[in-house]
Amino acid sequence: MPKTDRKPLILLTNDDGVEAQGMKDLHDGLKGLGRVWVVAPAVNQSASSHSFSLRKPIKVWRLRPRWLAVHGTPTDCLLISHHGILKRKIDLVFSGINDSPNLGDDVLYSGTVAAAIEGTMLGMPSVAVSYLEAGQNRDVAIRFLRRLVPLLLDGILPPKTLLNVNIPAGEIKGVQVTRLGKRIYKDMAIEGTLPDGGISWTIDGEMAFAETEGSDFAAVYSGYISVTPLHLDMTHHGEIERLQKAFDRLSLKR
Predict the structure, then answer these.
(1) Is residue 238 part of a domain?
(2) Domain that residue 103 falls in
(3) pTM of structure
(4) DSSP category for residue 137
(5) Under a CB-based contact definition with an 8 Å cutoff, are residues 89 and 10 in contact?
(6) Which long-range contacts (CB under 8 A, 24 or more apart) does 81-84 make?
(7) Which of 41, 116, 234, 241 fits 126 for a cystine, CB–CB 3.0-4.6 Å?
(8) Which residues contact 216 (CB under 8 A, 6 or more apart)?
(9) Cβ distance 96 to 22 under 8 Å?
């Protein structure tokens, strides 16, 4: 087969909003490596997780060439890009750069990570990227991502696998491939009063993390870029046989 000189199509999205500084960092850093498109939420969609707008019209408008604002979630952005807006194969997806970290259990809530998950589900090599502190180590982050692009295009990721990248603050010592750590949530529901006399509740609280060797938390707080491979198969394979034996003992007869 003859080689093609077709430039890769790189889709950028986020959950902080289409005009977020992290998106501008990502776009400026990756331009020149292919045909870069930005399709991102019009407004902040942080903690939107994997929600999407089912059977609802989604407004999209062009801010500038190849830079589109979507009145929807990060997952919406991936779905309409893949199935509608872009008329050719998307080669890579980058989601970010988020203005705060997505570590440990945060990946379950993060719209940034959800966009990369959706890209992976659609068969595209996908990466979620977050700063520990907004804008800290931008140049090193971009240098790392630019060097990651050819590895992704060469197929470094197996099917159903994405990368969750977190950029530390302060001096960067290197890169560590990590596992998800454990976030400790100390949530509170704070009661308030609305102008009409109704009751409101605000979810707030503090967060900490378990200091576990080899985790994403341990890496970024030690000065390393954390790269966590995430797999879409959530099945607890080790439990299938044990649970089957337990259910085999149940009788469903009256």
Answers:
(1) yes
(2) 9-180+212-248
(3) 0.89
(4) T
(5) no
(6) 81/11, 81/13, 81/37, 81/39, 82/122, 82/124
(7) 116
(8) 103, 104, 164, 166, 178, 179, 180, 181, 226, 228
(9) yes
Yes or no: say if 77 and 41 are a contact pair by the CB < 8 Å rule: yes
Q: What is the pLDDT of residue 60?
A: 94
93 pLDDT band, cuts 50/70/90, is very high
Number of domains forming the structure of the chain = 1
In a domain, 197, yes or no: no
CATH number at residue 233: 3.40.1210.10
Please give the Cα distance from 133 to 23 (Å, whole number).
Answer: 15
Decide if 81 contacts 115 (C-beta within 8 A).
Answer: no
Query: Per-residue pLDDT for 241 more than 50?
Result: yes
Amino acid at 102: N
Where b means 16+ CB within 10 Å and e means fewer, 79-98 reads bbbbeeebeeebbbbbbbbb
The angle at the Cα of 147, spanning 141 to 149, to the nearest 5 degrees, equals 105
Q: Which residue has the tokens 């259990």?
A: 105
Q: Is the peptide bond before 97 cis (omega within 30 degrees of 0)?
A: yes
